[in-house]
Amino acid sequence: MNPQGVLHATRPAAPADDFAADVLAGLKAKPKALPPKYFYDLAGSALFERITRLPEYYPTRCEIGILQDQAPAIASMFPPGSALVEFGSGSSRKARILLSAAATVEAYVPVDISGDFLQQDLVQLKRDLPHLIVHPLVEDFTKPFALPPALAALPRVGFFPGSTIGNFEPEEARGFLRHIGAMLGPAALLVVGIDLVKDEATLVRAYNDAEGVTAKFNLNLLTRINRELGADFDVAAFRHSAFFNRALSRIEMHLVSGKRQRVRVNGATIEFGAGETIHTENSYKYTVESFQALARSAGWTPVKVFTDGMFGVHALRRTEDR
Ligand code: AVJ
Q1: What percent of the chain is predicted at pLDDT more than 90?
Q2: Which of 246, 257, 259, 320 is most buried as measured by Cβ atoms within 10 A of its Cβ?
Q3: pLDDT, mean of residues 35-61
């Protein structure tokens, strides 16, 4: 532990570098697709941070507003002396809102694969809430991991904000919710933020901002592939596309090839037709009811939902096994 009382994140053995393999498999697939988790290199993370402050991108603002307004109500559901386990926390900004309203929380455990915790944030959090044990873990939160032995006996509250669960296929989201339930154990509470289905214009605008930040964020994936895999994408020959697929209730992001072209990637040649796309992201949107149904099917009982009509923060309790 450092003098500020924040444990440094402990790094597991470096995960095998799947980037090259995933990119090649995605570009050889029909239709072409790339996993959205690769958006978040240094430049991509900075661009996403800018997205969250865009006038058109309402989800972050709405979720933070709901958390601020409802923190006492949400915190009142936490079992006394619990550990708040946050899945995929780069910044602790949202957890801080809950922690400030939940005086009895004993430990905060942010879990992130990147290890890219804002150490300054955690140190400041520890300063503001001196009673709190802050124990970051560098783990792939989609896989099983152990809580620190000292915290193993505490009741658990899971926190999965940011509509990140919307990046999963509904089937994967169900599997992930089940996995979280197994990890957190019986009687666990889970707080999940998920964007709501709404009118198409509002949804589409959020992914097609006037300043073009989302386009840069999308195109940065090609820049990253060029840099890290020695590829020769002509980034200017691709354009950003984002639209709402109502039948599947998801925003789709694509990179559209402006012409017929050939790209060299890690020794392979990838051919693009004019107008052919790389599908880079799905962002699923749920109604309150469709998300609650998904949660139920994954072993969680909806307790309460906090919403401003734009975004939903769901409180779920693990359904008792019978
Ligand atoms: C971080 C996955 C919630 O889907 O809205 C923002 C990512 N993509 N603009 C989202 C994103 C384009 C974001 N999530």
Answers
A1: 83
A2: 257
A3: 95
Query: Is the CB of 164 within 6 Å of ligand 1?
Result: yes
Name the residue of 57, 281, 311 to mutate for ligand 1: max ligand atoms within 8 A of Cβ.
281
Residue 253 Cα to ligand 1 midpoint, Å, equals 10
Tens of pLDDT, residue by residue over 87-124, are 987 789 999 999 999 999 999 999 988 766 677 889 99
Tokens 């570098």 identify what position? 17
- C-alpha 279/C-alpha 90 separation (Å) is 25
Ligand 1 center from residue 7 Cα (angstroms): 30
Q: In what order do the strands lie in the sheet with 311-318?
A: 133-134, 107-111, 83-87, 156-160, 189-195, 311-318, 300-307
- Answer whether 218's CB lies under 8 Å from 227's CB: no
**Which CA distances in Å does 179 have to 13, 62, 66, 318?**
22, 27, 26, 11
Contact criterion met (CB below 8 Å) for 9 and 137: yes
Q: Residue 157: helix, strand or coil by DSSP?
A: strand
With contact defined as beta carbons under 8 Å apart, do 250 and 167 qualify? no
β partners of residue 281:
253
Mutation choice for ligand 1 from 163, 195, 213, CB with most ligand atoms inside 8 A = 163
Give the pLDDT confidence of 64-85 residue by residue, as tens digits.
Answer: 999 999 999 999 999 999 999 9
